Amino acid sequence: EVHMVESGGGLVQPGGSLRLSCAVSGFPFSAFSLYWVRQAPGKDLEWVSGVNLSSGRPYYAESVKGRFTISRDNAKNTLYLQMNSLKTEDTAVYYCATDPDGTSRGQGTQVTVSS
Asked: Can you list the residues of the chain whose pLDDT is less than 50?
């Protein structure tokens, strides 16, 4: 059974930083492309970032490009999302997922950007 547990969320002021982690178990971590998606209050799930399995190349939504960095540690079965220069519109529940639509995702971690 696939199990993904996100952590690292919290309350931060605009311009601040957070680092999210996603601990993965139950499937061969290094064999899957992985993604971060988010859901803001009252909005649909939104794809944020992904890292390609074979190339290791990262991909980002335009709204976070240049501010967020996705990475993975295959030895630790952990996916990360470094978020810098946070904006109020980044407020959402963040999930790691095995597909870009977020169909298979963890329980999420809340990120609130507010002054």
From this structure: none
